[in-house]
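Posted in: Structural Biology > Protein-Ligand Complexes

Title: Requesting predicted complex, pyridoxal-5'-phosphate in pocket

I'd be grateful if someone could produce the 3D structure tokens for the following input. Sequence and ligand are given below.
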Amino acid sequence: MNTQEIPYKIYLEESEMPAHWYNVRADMENKPAPLLNPETLKPMTLEELEHVFCTELAKQELDDTTPYFEIPQEIREFYRMYRPSPLVRAYCLEKKLDTPAKIYYKFEGNNTSGSHKLNSAIAQAYYAKKQGLKGVTTETGAGQWGTALSMACSYFDLDCRVYMVKCSYEQKPFRREVMRTYGAAVTPSPSETTEVGKKILAEHPGTAGSLGCAISEAVEAATATEGYRYVLGSVLSQVLLHQTVIGLETKAALDKYEIVPDMIIGCAGGGSNLGGLISPFMGEVLRGERNYQIIAVEPVSCPSLTRGKYAYDFCDTGRVCPLAKMYTLGSGFIPSPNHAGGLRYHGMSSVLSQLYHDGLMEARSVTQTEVFQAAQQFARIEGILPAPESSHAIRAAIDEALKCKETGEEKTIVFGLTGTGYFDMYAYQRFNDGEMTDYVPTDEDLKPGFDSLPAL
Ligand SMILES: *Cc1c(COP(=O)(O)O)cnc(C)c1O
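-- Reply #1 --
Done. Output follows.
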């Protein structure tokens, strides 16, 4: 097809939007290893998972065989308010880079939460409501997940309690106020409202909190309160399933113009957006229909795929969640304090971990100054101010396009632009002031995290 015929933005009609999520596990020969009960070390049963998670979500979590899950009508109606998201041909970036590569990005930032997280938040809130629950609890670090969940809960009239890492609660007051505007109760963590919070405060008075500690508080609050369950914004297979709406729309839009990508790139924190973006393409690879180069991009300062171990580990620092087999730096791992680019989680989705282990995708790590350079370049050319997380994918896409410039190859590159960066202006400020530095952890730095791995 003539390049000129491909529009800047490829939209789908409402009738072309996906009616099902695709469960890539169904096509995997080597299934991801099961979640284990941390006490018995046996695979988690539905009954055990139901205490913490909504029943329907627990079923999705355990299902390795059903290829398609119908997206309930109520969720599709909500999706229609901000989806389909555009697949954008980055003509201006291509021109600026003077590359023969064709670059496309799937933009998920066009909703108030500013990221793809709303795709799963609305699904999780829907199943909680359908089960007749009163509310849900969760943790949030930087605040994107908490914001998405508050939006979803207010839509379904559910109570939403967010434990927000204390230093973020203080440093990101606007995120906090967005959540409160949507009706969520936001508690700085650690807090006096839970036993685990009181314990941590007694041991470490004045602590700034951590994600692991906020998870432990949120899980305690859910299990100790009648009619509440705990929900999580990444890592779990159910979240990856909901996020396949990204990949399915991308594939439908590309198919419309008979475009076949050579390369699919995404940033990887817990792995949900990348897993969702690549799932339909990976399905083709797994069924032997086609091949793609698939690249996960992570920060040098939190390198779970590129330097982690493939092992069973705790999903949270508080060690209350099930054990998952994944590429991990150990639940005790804490990224260097100068790290500003997000994607701080110590582990990786067990689905992506298995695919990576089987050689079906690649991973690379990038430094934060390289990431912010790419973010700035992208903002100046394509207009969108990207989230630092998303900018990891931008970095790799630009690098690949520049390689094409040298070799003359006309590769088609698709990357996931997961969100906008308006609440990350302190990080941008450090970059703009020339004060951002890189720190590559030494093996010595990674050792305490690996030492925290459970001996199984
Ligand atoms: C949370 C987040 C990510 C990383 O999470 P994944 O589960 O790895 O997708 C990436 N980009 C943005 C904008 C986010 O908010």
